[in-house]
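Q: Got a minute? One more chain.
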Amino acid sequence: MGERLTKLDWLKHGLRTLADNGPGALKVGPMAAKLNVSRGSFYWHFQDIEDFRSELLQHWQETSTDQIIDALDARPNDPELLRDLLHEAFARQPRVDRAVRSWAAHDDDVARLVAAVDERRIARVSQLLVDAGVDTTRAAHRALFLYWAFLGQAAVADQRHRSLAKDALNDIAHLFGGPD
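A: Always. Here it is, folded:
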């Protein structure tokens, strides 16, 4: 890269590195070499590798959860929100989420962050269901079940079974989001 890298450039590269090679590959020298820049570029934006890893996880949380929930919250309450969320969630590439979860299995700090992200995601889906007329207890159960399905999608090895047509997702949204 000929131009100066931004903090965001480093974070995006970090997520790709994490997804491709795991947390052990999050090292300054190899990442800088891959980007064809000096290590000084890294240290311009981050104090050290721990600072980078912390900001990387924060960036993952913001892009995979906070921004999506904020976009939902900015829309007027409408029964199509659950459908739209399912379309977005199940269309995403699960590589980064899978890598973060794998990292969490070996790092308590990462595990705490992932648990907080899970809690926020499930709570927001549950609220969408309540807003659609589902009672609170059933909404919590349905939200958890939908979240399990979302997480399980990443584990499916056969590409033929890793996605559903929009009509199928619409049907599932209707099934889960309808009043009792």
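A: The chain has a mean pLDDT of 91.
Q: Perfect, thanks.
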